[in-house]
Amino acid sequence: MNYSKCRVCKEPAIIDLPRHNANFCGEHFIQLCRRQVEKAIKDHRMLDPKDRILVAVSGGKDSLAVWDLLIELGYQADGLYIGLGIGDYSPTSEGYAQRFADQRGLKLITVDLRQDFGYDIPTASRATGRVPCSACGLSKRHLFDSVAMENGYEVVVTGHNLDDEAAVLFGNTLRWDIDYLARQLPVLPATPGFPKKVKPLVRLTERETAAWCVVRGIDYLLDECPMALGNRHLAHKNTLNEVERQSPGAKALFYLNFVEKMAPLLASHGQEMVDGLGTCDSCGRPTTGTTCAFCRVVATSSAHEPVPVELVLSKKARAAYLSDRQET
Q: pTM of this prediction?
């Protein structure tokens, strides 16, 4: 395809977007991204200008792009970085997040699992028998909520993009996991003990958020987390990428039509899950039992000897991780 000219101004284009059947220069690509995020925020009533917003920041393209977009759109937003203790990857990713904040005069709150709770993700994986991504996701979700509630933030923003949401939806649909399907929405309203959670990037693809960062001059971490190599989420992304290649726009139709047409049918099921929650005896956070899953992970993992990251990686991931360390 010849995408040398921007559809809007006919100046040289920097990106072709088959799902929009269009090419854009830098200026008009930025405008497109802003419009897509503004539409997501408006359509799903994600944010109010008066909201105190906390952005979950990893140092990667998506979280830095969404933080940058919100500031550009006039919202007041602070960042939250969670140090997961994943080998060299975690301090490197924290550096990207901190530099982004420092260069723009933004506030970044940091929480370190090892320092603050006595464990890290490799150790939690080995101590609890959970796969690393499960221990990581559980820890991050708990801390996003607790830090927001303790510091008076009404809304937690995450950088989940269209590719992320379509891949998760694909996996949940393959299993017909109703509990997860009922909660896979661009907005989860605030409930007792939980802040509102929103995903402003659900109308932008991974490639588009990366391009936003390039055009805006945002330096971000390129490396994938070594823990993620080989997980099902990436396999689902690759499958949907092939569908998208043959039918541009398919991912957007798949996810956005689910949100519009199917999610309302599951709303009552999601409410039943919230209504059944009690209070954790240890931390006071909402939970289905007497002790929440996070506190159980802390109790088990903090008593375990620290485990090096390479010991909990798959053979393929371990080889890649060790190779990267030797090169650096």
A: 0.92
